[in-house]
Amino acid sequence: MTLFLRPPLLVTARLALSHPPYRPQKVEAKGVLASSCPSVAHQKPSFNLESVSSSSFTAATSLQCLHFQSCSGCSQEWDLDQPRVVTEARKFFQELGISDLKFESGMLVEWRCRAKLAVRGTSERPLIGLYEEGTHNVVDIPLCRAHHPNINVAVNLLKQGICALNIQPYDEDLGTGELRYVQIAVTTYNTSLPAAERYQNGKVQVSLVWNSRNEQSESYKKLNALAEFLWRNAGPRSNSHLFHSIWVNFQTSSSNIIFGNRWRLLLGERDFWEHIGGIDVCLDPSSFGQANTQAFNSLLRKLQKYVPYGSSVVDLYAGAGVIGLSVAATRKCRQGRRLLSLRCVEINKESKLSFEKSLSRFPKHIDCNVHWHNTDASIEPLHWLKGSNVVIVDPPRKGVEQSLLDALREISKCKDSKVPKSSIINEKEEKRPWILRARKATVHVESKTSINWAKDQIWPEFIIYVSCGWESFKEDCLSPLKLPTELSVFAVQQCLAFGKGSCFQFLSWDRESRYRKEGNVRRRFGVESQGMGIVATAATDRICTEL
């Protein structure tokens, strides 16, 4: 067994370049000019410099967004390289013995590659944007500085189509109208371009949430006309190819749920690819995808380093399996060592197709077991933990379910990872048919050397927690840390976006080092920003164990 130390982080200040506020270009349609839609015309943003101290105002680190005062999307306007949440994070981790917090600024504007926007107003003056804080009043944000520039171009063109074709925006009070929401996603996957040019030339996938049950509705012709308008002006045969594809989602529910269950591709390519974490990933519009792809890619690259070679990994709340597949591809077993195995557990059945497509491009030379299960990870969690020495959890904002936390707590009390002694861990033989059906892999690829997880008496030694909720993250990570035989922290990473409470965190525990005395563990903590966010890393004198 070899122990190695990670060198101290070198942190430098790298500020984003100042960009002038983006101006959407006019798109000329058949007999329709951009000026015919009043909602497209906007004044230049103005700032009250008297209310801002000279020390805090710098063009490179200010948002410079016209919509900041009314829009609920961003919470900080000045000093974006000095986010206020870092102060809270510094205090929180200092109480855990982690100090010396530093950070490095990355891309501060134009980082959002996926946006869900409400469509309200009238056909003469449509409003496309986010809700005002605490209300359901939509704030129009055509010049959003957080959006990838091509999202703003797509919104501008969509407004023109609404005006030209008399599309009725949704009325939430009456339940009437035609267009409820729009989801716009940008893919930078284009191998025909140099890597440095791919981001700025990203193609846009548009998903129109239509207020009808299916294609048989009376308004379906108007939907097709709107899609054709967009495709004609910015499709592959236009002067400026912007759109990757145009989808429709049919939704008639009066609830706050944005998407319904029925999707249909109207125009363009079906598969939406992105290269993240060293692998090609396919994401359907119904699949969950990270808005800040650059920050997420950076997080994955760092996360991968904390997974030992040859591990058996279970990825809970896996979605389309992006985290698990990236780990399996990059932390493959070295020659002569045990094969890496991966199990992904996800409750959303819509993620299955995306996982299968991503798996089709999985490197063929990597020989490992890969299974994807469509079930709830919080039901019988011990079954999913058994047979894996690395657990990855990526829960929703509310955090990890209590049943899973309880299971992790029981495992942390075991001194020997291969011989659990807890009566709770020694589960009985399962006979319930619905549980047995859920345990069967919906998607699976077997390696040359099969692994029987049910009989393999290996239990988690490493826990990696990826979160998008700062408050639930703090609560969950304190839960195992307060145990008598604690899982001691050896790595912490987080990516805190500047939205209203939106964040990513990556926290990892090592069960083997729990016997170390607190006084003998030295921790270093560093932070680097990745596109409107921060990636924080902490380390003890024992970072990882080479088996």
TrEMBL record:
Gene3D superfamilies: 2.40.50.1070, Vaccinia Virus protein VP39. One of its GO terms (biological process) is RNA processing. InterPro entries: RNA_M5U_MTase (IPR053304), SAM-dependent_MTases_sf (IPR029063), U5_MeTrfase_fam (IPR010280). S-adenosyl-L-methionine binds at residues 290, 317, 346, 394. One of its GO terms (molecular function) is RNA methyltransferase activity. Keywords: Methyltransferase, S-adenosyl-L-methionine, Transferase. The keyword S-adenosyl-L-methionine applies. The active site is at 468 (nucleophile). Belongs to the class I-like SAM-binding methyltransferase superfamily. RNA M5U methyltransferase family. PANTHER family: BNAA06G32370D PROTEIN, S-ADENOSYL-L-METHIONINE-DEPENDENT METHYLTRANSFERASES SUPERFAMILY PROTEIN. This is Methyltransferase small domain-containing protein. It comes from Dendrobium chrysotoxum (Orchid).
